[in-house]
Amino acid sequence: MRTTIRKMGNSQGILIPKPLLAQLGLENEVDMEVENDAIVLRRPRDKARQGWAEASKLIAQSGEDGLVMGEFGNDDDGELEW
């Protein structure tokens, strides 16, 4: 498929037909990079730490969220006044 490059404000871009986006499962975002003189668009990978909040809640509910190393103080903690 050949398409034209259009001016969009201070940038340039192309329009990707909706059926093509749907076929690839692309919605709001893409990962874009240059490979061997080609622009490559890919579905974004999972976001970093995705699902961690839900997993933490499950761990807390199961009671397995105790400290692994336990409490430990610093050498100078005895000199502190509270």
From TrEMBL:
UniProt-listed InterPro entries: SpoVT-AbrB_dom (IPR007159), SpoVT-AbrB_sf (IPR037914)
Keywords: DNA-binding
Domain (SpoVT-AbrB): residue spans on this chain: 3-46
Pfam family, one: MazE_antitoxin
GO MF annotations, alphabetized: DNA binding
Keyword Aminoacyl-tRNA synthetase (UniProt): no
Name under which the protein is recorded: Antitoxin
